Amino acid sequence: MAQVTFLEAIRQALFEEMDRDPAVVMIGEDIGVYGGAFKVTAGLLERFGWERVIDTPISETAIIGAAIGMSYQGLRPVAEMQFIDFIACCFNQLTNFAAKSHYRWGAPVPMVVRGPSGGGVHGGPFHSQNPEMYFAHTPGLKVIYPATAYDAKGLMKSAIRDNNPVLFFEHKFLYRRIKEELPEGEYLVPIGKAAVKREGQHLTIISYAAMLHTSLEAAEILAREGIECEVIDLRTLLPLDKETILASVKKTNKLLIVHEDTRTGGIAGEIAAIVCEGAFDDLDGPIVRVTSLDTPVPYSPPLEEHFLPNAEKIVTAARELAKY
Amino acid sequence: MDVSLTKKQKLELYYFMTLNRSLEDRLVNLFKQNKVVGGLYGSLGQEATSVGTAYALGPGDWIAPMIRNVGALLVRGYKPRDILTQYMARYTSPTLGKDGTSHFGDLKVRHVVSPISMLGDLIPVMTGIAMAGRYLGQKIVAMTWIGDGGTSTGAFHEGMNLAAVQKAPFVLIIENNGWAYSTPVGRQVPIKDLADRAKAYGIQSYIMDGNDVIAVYETTKKAVDQCRAGDGPVIIESKTMRMRGHAQHDPAEYVPKEMFAKWKKLDPLERYEKYLTENKLWDEKTKKEIDTRIDRELTAELEIAESGPFPPAELSEQGVYCDGCHEIEATWNRPKNELMPPKSSVEPVWKLSAVGEIEQGEARGAAATDEVTSGGRVSVDAKPHFDAPAKSVQKSKTAKPAPTKPSAKKSAARKKRS
Known about the structure:
The complex is a heterodimer. By secondary structure, chain A is an alpha/beta fold. Chain A has helices spanning 6-20, 44-48, 60-72, 91-105, 132-136, 149-161, 210-224, 242-252, 267-279, 301-307, 311-322, and strands at 3-5, 24-28, 53-55, 76-80, 112-117, 142-144, 166-171, 179-181, 195-198, 203-207, 229-233, 236-238, 255-262, 288-292. In chain A, the strands form three sheets. A seven-stranded mixed β-sheet of chain A has the order 3-2-4-5-7-6-12, with helices on both faces. Chain A has a five-stranded mixed β-sheet with strand order 9-11-10-13-14, with helices on both faces. In chain A, strands 1-8 form a two-stranded antiparallel ribbon. Chain B has helices spanning 7-32, 47-55, 70-75, 80-88, 122-135, 154-166, 185-188, 197-201, 213-228, 257-264, 268-278, 284-307, 360-364, 366-369, 408-417, and strands spanning 62-64, 142-147, 170-176, 179-180, 183-184, 204-209, 234-239, 352-354, 357-358, 384-386. In chain B, the strands form three sheets. Chain B has a six-stranded mixed β-sheet with strand order 1-2-3-7-6-10, sandwiched between helices. In chain B, α1 (7-32) crosses α2, α2 packs parallel to α9 and α5 (122-135) packs parallel to α6 (154-166). At the A-B interface, α2, α3 and α4 of A face α5, α6 and α13 of B.
């Protein structure tokens, strides 16, 4: 069976859902004739036509607003942010209109907002960000950030079928760098469930998106030193899978959290609080964070490399934690 | 001026305008009794705009009211108790006490979208409603309102521009009531007529006397009919005046007294009463019957509203997500297979007749080019404030596909000129 890239897996999900349900439409900038800045939507216009693949003006607020309106009519729009950094432009539509709609007046918003996120590709301060926590803090939204092609496809399909506004972050570093064989035929991955990607008994590493792969790389190095790490991929940040987190910490008694998002206000702080509330007595050491720095994402390679977490930083932190 | 409104309909307009005003009078009393738990926003002086615009829509059309559009909600079939309980934060309110004011709606029956407090955001949302309506073959029109102040937002621009480029069946009523909270319109925008904004979007606009309910109705009806026929969005500026403060707590001392005095003489209800009398559409007895009916209805509605309980505290934790509690199914008025391959498949290239000029019919889909006839014809004497350039209304079926690159001949000609 052919190997499928992370990007192709997402594209397959979009194709399959559009083929399955005419209520699924795409809206965004340069997604039709051009096929999207990263070609995630390439071929959709040709197959599904102008009415279902809508190229818009450069208007993120209008894109999300229109998608909300479409969803009120019973459609299931998938809106693309050309780069997820631009999601800041439509913050109000997402956090005040979409997120509060069902709670306030019982109007569901079955909408997906997707786009390329993350650093490591020298995109500079406005094409590299991880803005997921602005939204993980907003009740009413769901936030997905997959790390594998299998999960990306299955989660995208679940997101399109979900009755709530779902933000779907696609780490652009992974787009063409990872590939795997996908099952033939349809499958879904449930929203809100983390995955244990590697079992171990000495300490738990929780991560997601591109940093999952860096964490697994670190776990491999640590295993050669006799430190067996359990590596968890969160996959969904909102709702957060507290059960899987607590179960693993109760097993290993030590927790290291790795994310590419900046440090302050990152998901690591929230997880640390959850663990203190739910498994404090099980902890044998401090909860440790390996994250990006509290700065904008710098452009020049030596600066960006310094900014980002890497396997070496994770290994160093894990060695210290393992000593407890 | 006359329109094809029947006598019965004209009396109904009076009923809704008076109900709008009397309901708000009752709310002021409730506010003074501390029974309105939050702020109270009124529409005194703007009743004709709310009622007349909403009255021009059909039952399948969609609206999104702003905070002062109580009249539109009443026309749409909501009862006074719905507005009363919203302000009193009762469990029996449309939002069960989770939100107040006009912040409620109904996707299924009344086709009302709840506003949020941030201004301008309804414009792209209602554009999406309109686009989806066309996609589903519904032949509906979407309408919302915005104040003079709200036109300063980025969402206004993004939404109007998307509506225009999509030729969405969307009508925007700009209620120019002179004041954005304490800021006069001249400090909000440096132009006299907000309808001028339409020029920038290449769409049609009208200006209407917002305190003349017949003018409001007939102008809006014309715009709605144009929209339904596929001519693209329309902006209507309603010239009116907010006769109270921004909200009940605001005495509006910043408004010059002469301004209030001038507009008091243009009160929409008094003018309409005069119109009905002069045109012999009613007599004292009919007026009294309607007024008595409104008074009786409001007393009964208030009693129902006040007897409603506050919500149970645990409700605050519920309903953040739709976990299958709602079934989502679009109303399809066209065959789905038109939107599925092979029928949906196209050649994925732009067809440009000139630099940047797209053949709109194709990009906007089949529904946009359908001939649509709407119901009752009205003779309208509203003059367009601004006509959209005719070429933007061209349909692809008649236009010939043009080469995407200028021909050698044309290039040569261009060179010569330069």
